[in-house]
Amino acid sequence: MRVNILGVTVDTYSMSETAEKIKLAVSAQRPIRVVTANPEIIYASQYNWALKNVINSADIITADGIGVVWAARQLGTQIEERVTGIDLVQSLFPIANAEKWRMYFLGGRPGIAEQAVKQVAEDYPGIVFHTSHGYFQPHEESGILKEICEFRPDVLLVGLGAPRQEFWLAEHPGLTFVGIGVGGSFDALAGTVRRAPKQFQDLHIEWLYRLLKEPWRWKRQTVLPRFLFKVLWQRLKS
Question: Do the domain assignments include residue 16?
Protein backbone atom coordinates (compact mmCIF):
# COMPACT_ATOMS: atom_id res chain seq x y z
CA MET A 1 0.00 0.00 0.00
CA ARG A 2 1.14 3.55 -0.71
CA VAL A 3 0.14 6.95 0.63
CA ASN A 4 0.25 10.15 -1.43
CA ILE A 5 2.27 12.78 0.43
CA LEU A 6 2.47 16.02 -1.54
CA GLY A 7 2.32 14.04 -4.77
CA VAL A 8 4.96 11.49 -3.75
CA THR A 9 3.62 7.97 -3.23
CA VAL A 10 5.34 6.48 -0.19
CA ASP A 11 5.17 2.78 0.70
CA THR A 12 3.81 1.76 4.09
CA TYR A 13 6.23 -1.17 4.49
CA SER A 14 7.98 -1.77 7.79
CA MET A 15 11.74 -2.23 7.92
CA SER A 16 11.48 -6.02 7.91
CA GLU A 17 8.99 -5.97 5.03
CA THR A 18 11.25 -3.70 2.98
CA ALA A 19 14.28 -5.90 3.61
CA GLU A 20 12.26 -8.99 2.65
CA LYS A 21 11.14 -7.43 -0.63
CA ILE A 22 14.75 -6.59 -1.45
CA LYS A 23 15.81 -10.14 -0.61
CA LEU A 24 13.12 -11.53 -2.91
CA ALA A 25 14.21 -9.21 -5.73
CA VAL A 26 17.81 -10.41 -5.46
CA SER A 27 16.72 -14.06 -5.28
CA ALA A 28 14.53 -13.64 -8.36
CA GLN A 29 17.20 -11.55 -10.12
CA ARG A 30 14.55 -8.88 -10.65
CA PRO A 31 15.97 -5.34 -10.90
CA ILE A 32 14.37 -2.80 -8.57
CA ARG A 33 15.19 0.76 -7.54
CA VAL A 34 14.71 2.00 -3.98
CA VAL A 35 14.27 5.64 -2.90
CA THR A 36 14.46 6.57 0.78
CA ALA A 37 12.18 9.61 0.83
CA ASN A 38 12.70 12.10 3.65
CA PRO A 39 10.76 15.37 4.13
CA GLU A 40 13.51 17.36 2.42
CA ILE A 41 13.40 15.47 -0.87
CA ILE A 42 9.59 15.25 -0.84
CA TYR A 43 9.40 19.01 -0.32
CA ALA A 44 11.97 19.64 -3.06
CA SER A 45 9.92 17.54 -5.49
CA GLN A 46 7.14 20.14 -5.22
CA TYR A 47 9.26 22.46 -7.33
CA ASN A 48 11.02 19.88 -9.49
CA TRP A 49 8.76 17.71 -11.64
CA ALA A 50 11.69 15.66 -12.94
CA LEU A 51 12.61 14.75 -9.36
CA LYS A 52 9.02 13.86 -8.50
CA ASN A 53 8.83 11.58 -11.54
CA VAL A 54 12.11 9.91 -10.63
CA ILE A 55 10.92 9.26 -7.08
CA ASN A 56 7.48 7.99 -8.08
CA SER A 57 8.91 5.66 -10.72
CA ALA A 58 10.93 3.78 -8.10
CA ASP A 59 9.84 0.28 -7.15
CA ILE A 60 10.09 0.96 -3.41
CA ILE A 61 9.77 4.38 -1.76
CA THR A 62 10.42 4.24 1.98
CA ALA A 63 9.37 6.65 4.72
CA ASP A 64 12.78 8.05 5.63
CA GLY A 65 12.12 9.98 8.81
CA ILE A 66 9.51 10.48 11.49
CA GLY A 67 8.24 13.53 9.58
CA VAL A 68 7.11 11.28 6.73
CA VAL A 69 5.51 8.82 9.16
CA TRP A 70 3.66 11.74 10.80
CA ALA A 71 2.56 13.07 7.41
CA ALA A 72 1.10 9.70 6.41
CA ARG A 73 -0.88 9.51 9.64
CA GLN A 74 -2.20 13.04 9.13
CA LEU A 75 -3.44 11.93 5.73
CA GLY A 76 -5.23 8.88 7.11
CA THR A 77 -2.68 6.13 6.46
CA GLN A 78 -0.77 4.31 9.16
CA ILE A 79 2.95 3.70 8.63
CA GLU A 80 4.34 1.44 11.34
CA GLU A 81 7.86 2.84 11.40
CA ARG A 82 10.36 4.94 9.51
CA VAL A 83 12.72 3.18 7.10
CA THR A 84 15.81 5.35 6.83
CA GLY A 85 18.66 4.74 4.43
CA ILE A 86 21.29 3.88 7.05
CA ASP A 87 18.92 1.64 9.03
CA LEU A 88 17.80 -0.17 5.89
CA VAL A 89 21.38 -0.79 4.83
CA GLN A 90 22.25 -2.17 8.25
CA SER A 91 19.18 -4.42 8.21
CA LEU A 92 20.36 -5.87 4.88
CA PHE A 93 23.84 -6.84 6.05
CA PRO A 94 22.80 -10.03 7.93
CA ILE A 95 20.78 -11.16 4.90
CA ALA A 96 23.60 -10.31 2.52
CA ASN A 97 26.06 -12.21 4.72
CA ALA A 98 23.91 -15.34 4.81
CA GLU A 99 23.14 -15.18 1.08
CA LYS A 100 26.74 -14.32 0.07
CA TRP A 101 25.65 -11.20 -1.80
CA ARG A 102 27.93 -8.95 -3.77
CA MET A 103 27.59 -5.30 -2.67
CA TYR A 104 29.04 -2.21 -4.33
CA PHE A 105 29.49 1.03 -2.38
CA LEU A 106 29.55 4.10 -4.64
CA GLY A 107 29.91 7.49 -3.01
CA GLY A 108 31.51 9.51 -0.26
CA ARG A 109 34.86 11.23 -0.15
CA PRO A 110 37.92 9.27 -1.30
CA GLY A 111 38.66 6.55 1.22
CA ILE A 112 35.32 6.69 3.04
CA ALA A 113 33.63 3.80 1.21
CA GLU A 114 36.76 1.66 1.72
CA GLN A 115 36.76 2.44 5.44
CA ALA A 116 33.05 1.62 5.63
CA VAL A 117 33.67 -1.75 3.97
CA LYS A 118 36.52 -2.47 6.38
CA GLN A 119 34.21 -1.89 9.35
CA VAL A 120 31.29 -3.87 7.94
CA ALA A 121 33.39 -6.81 6.72
CA GLU A 122 34.59 -7.51 10.27
CA ASP A 123 31.05 -8.52 11.24
CA TYR A 124 29.87 -9.81 7.86
CA PRO A 125 32.71 -11.73 6.17
CA GLY A 126 30.31 -13.51 3.81
CA ILE A 127 29.64 -10.36 1.77
CA VAL A 128 31.81 -9.60 -1.27
CA PHE A 129 32.43 -5.84 -1.50
CA HIS A 130 33.68 -3.35 -4.05
CA THR A 131 33.90 0.43 -3.73
CA SER A 132 34.37 3.69 -5.56
CA HIS A 133 34.29 7.22 -4.16
CA GLY A 134 31.69 9.72 -5.29
CA TYR A 135 34.01 12.55 -6.34
CA PHE A 136 34.51 11.29 -9.87
CA GLN A 137 34.67 13.62 -12.86
CA PRO A 138 32.30 13.27 -15.84
CA HIS A 139 35.03 11.74 -18.00
CA GLU A 140 35.62 9.07 -15.30
CA GLU A 141 32.02 7.90 -15.13
CA SER A 142 32.29 5.42 -18.01
CA GLY A 143 35.11 3.65 -16.18
CA ILE A 144 33.02 3.38 -13.02
CA LEU A 145 30.05 2.03 -14.97
CA LYS A 146 32.28 -0.58 -16.57
CA GLU A 147 33.68 -1.54 -13.18
CA ILE A 148 30.20 -1.96 -11.70
CA CYS A 149 29.07 -4.09 -14.64
CA GLU A 150 32.13 -6.31 -14.36
CA PHE A 151 31.65 -6.70 -10.60
CA ARG A 152 27.98 -7.70 -11.09
CA PRO A 153 26.67 -6.56 -7.69
CA ASP A 154 23.49 -7.91 -6.21
CA VAL A 155 23.02 -4.60 -4.39
CA LEU A 156 24.39 -1.22 -5.44
CA LEU A 157 24.42 1.41 -2.68
CA VAL A 158 24.78 4.93 -4.07
CA GLY A 159 25.75 7.70 -1.66
CA LEU A 160 26.00 10.73 -3.93
CA GLY A 161 23.58 12.85 -1.92
CA ALA A 162 19.98 13.65 -2.80
CA PRO A 163 18.74 14.21 -5.41
CA ARG A 164 21.87 13.41 -7.44
CA GLN A 165 21.86 9.76 -6.36
CA GLU A 166 18.18 9.34 -7.30
CA PHE A 167 18.74 10.75 -10.78
CA TRP A 168 21.96 8.74 -11.21
CA LEU A 169 20.30 5.41 -10.41
CA ALA A 170 17.34 6.19 -12.68
CA GLU A 171 19.69 7.14 -15.53
CA HIS A 172 21.70 3.90 -15.25
CA PRO A 173 19.28 0.96 -15.11
CA GLY A 174 20.52 -2.60 -15.44
CA LEU A 175 23.65 -2.21 -13.31
CA THR A 176 22.35 -4.33 -10.44
CA PHE A 177 19.37 -6.21 -9.08
CA VAL A 178 18.81 -3.65 -6.30
CA GLY A 179 19.90 -0.01 -6.41
CA ILE A 180 19.42 2.14 -3.30
CA GLY A 181 20.23 5.81 -2.70
CA VAL A 182 21.77 5.97 0.77
CA GLY A 183 22.92 9.57 1.23
CA GLY A 184 25.65 9.90 3.86
CA SER A 185 25.40 6.32 5.11
CA PHE A 186 29.01 5.50 4.23
CA ASP A 187 30.28 8.18 6.61
CA ALA A 188 28.22 6.64 9.41
CA LEU A 189 29.39 3.11 8.57
CA ALA A 190 32.99 4.27 8.39
CA GLY A 191 32.69 5.96 11.78
CA THR A 192 33.70 9.39 10.50
CA VAL A 193 30.24 10.76 11.37
CA ARG A 194 28.56 9.68 14.58
CA ARG A 195 24.87 8.90 14.56
CA ALA A 196 22.68 10.44 17.21
CA PRO A 197 22.67 8.61 20.58
CA LYS A 198 19.91 6.04 21.02
CA GLN A 199 17.93 8.40 23.24
CA PHE A 200 17.66 10.89 20.37
CA GLN A 201 16.75 8.09 17.92
CA ASP A 202 14.04 6.72 20.23
CA LEU A 203 12.55 10.20 20.61
CA HIS A 204 12.74 10.72 16.83
CA ILE A 205 14.80 13.91 17.19
CA GLU A 206 17.98 12.88 15.38
CA TRP A 207 17.55 16.07 13.36
CA LEU A 208 18.04 18.09 16.57
CA TYR A 209 21.24 16.19 17.42
CA ARG A 210 22.62 16.86 13.94
CA LEU A 211 21.71 20.51 14.24
CA LEU A 212 23.47 20.77 17.62
CA LYS A 213 26.58 19.07 16.21
CA GLU A 214 26.45 20.88 12.86
CA PRO A 215 24.75 24.25 13.38
CA TRP A 216 25.47 25.25 9.78
CA ARG A 217 22.66 22.85 8.80
CA TRP A 218 20.00 25.24 10.10
CA LYS A 219 18.98 26.38 6.62
CA ARG A 220 18.25 22.79 5.62
CA GLN A 221 16.23 22.24 8.79
CA THR A 222 13.88 25.08 7.87
CA VAL A 223 12.41 22.72 5.26
CA LEU A 224 10.73 20.66 7.99
CA PRO A 225 8.17 23.26 9.19
CA ARG A 226 7.39 24.14 5.56
CA PHE A 227 6.88 20.44 4.82
CA LEU A 228 4.56 20.07 7.83
CA PHE A 229 2.52 23.10 6.77
CA LYS A 230 2.07 21.74 3.24
CA VAL A 231 0.95 18.36 4.62
CA LEU A 232 -1.64 20.03 6.83
CA TRP A 233 -2.81 22.05 3.84
CA GLN A 234 -3.12 18.85 1.81
CA ARG A 235 -5.21 17.29 4.61
CA LEU A 236 -7.43 20.38 4.76
CA LYS A 237 -8.03 20.33 1.00
CA SER A 238 -8.87 16.64 1.01
Answer: no
